[in-house]
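Extended Data, panel c. Modelled sequence:
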Amino acid sequence: MRAVRLPFSTASVRFDQDAAIWVLLQQIVVRGFVAVKFLAIGRILGPAAIGSVSVALLAVAIAEALSDTGLAQAVVQGRETPNRSQLGAVWTTLASRGALIAVLIVCAAPLMDSQFHLGGSLLLLQMAALLPLIRGVASPAYYIVTRERGFMRIAGVEMSSAFLDCAIGLGFALSGAGAYSVLLGMLAGETLKTVLTWTTMGPRPPLRASWKGIGHYVNFSRWIWAGSVVNLLLNQFDKVIVAKLLGPAQLGAYQMSSKLAQMLLADAAIAMSQYLFPTFSAHHRKDADFAARLFRRYLGLIAGGLVVLVIILRFAAEPLFQIVLGTAWLPAVPLFRIFVVNMAIGAVIAVLVSYLRAVGLPKVATHASIIQAVVLLATVPVATHMWGVTGIAWAMTGGLAAAAGWMLFRILKEA
């Protein structure tokens, strides 16, 4: 039997534009900058300020999930490369979506300010509305480069954006800008990324409003949209509950423990999926059996590493928070110990979803999300009543485990 060789296991490291080393380098640099920014700003500002920013970003996440077109994944997965007319339709759709989200967030800002006990952070919410607008006008040539596995160019764009985000955010935090420093850094980083997609990537779409050719992607992307809507409930409703019932300070502790666990566990797999999705897609188009074997090797490697990391992080949680964030964040340690399990399962799910989308089965991931939602609806009320915020975290973890189990079952069944 022919051996399956993993790109990371070759004796010599390749630096071609499609080499996996660029995904690894991007992951290390980008997540490093994100970690420095959020941990440093979290130590400077404390839980309440981080909670206020989290509410603003929560509004953006909800709006983007409800309007997710799935076009990026459809462009990458499709058998034929889009022509300029189809790219123009993709850009028109994404730009219109970004503008609509921005308007809705600005209109909803006063209500959110009062409902989530932000104490007059109206401008913070309105600033967050600029994020989807800037993202929406980026060039869809980014997805063509992803499809063609141009990981070197993607890494250059993402690392440059992350550096500017970190530098601007920390600069404003140290100068006393408070919670606004987080958003100012993000706005600067997203602006640079959008500019770079137009100046360094091609082909560029025509800059005119046109939806001609967009129907070509609807059949695939509708499942991505459906999955995003379900994932909205799965990924955001717990934060809404914490913010509404307990206020910004508790939300800040909840978010920081989740974010730290995500940076240490899930982000690596999520970033790796940027390599795996187009790679699985390319191999599946040529040899489905080879793609399946490659998937099993990656899944085993990632799952084994995650088990070791979870054990280490649960033991090291308290000194980690004391050293990195300070005494004010120690009440978040029990949550962190739960979230490391949560994020490890999420990392496995990132690999599963990459493979399912690559082989043209995005509906399986959507079905898994529905199963996760059912588990949450059944467990969250009881868990919240009995254990409060830690109960919510455990219920989220149980839902993720159910979703991962379903996807694994379907993949094995299709094999």
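The chain has 15 helices and no strands. This feature is highlighted in the accompanying rendering.
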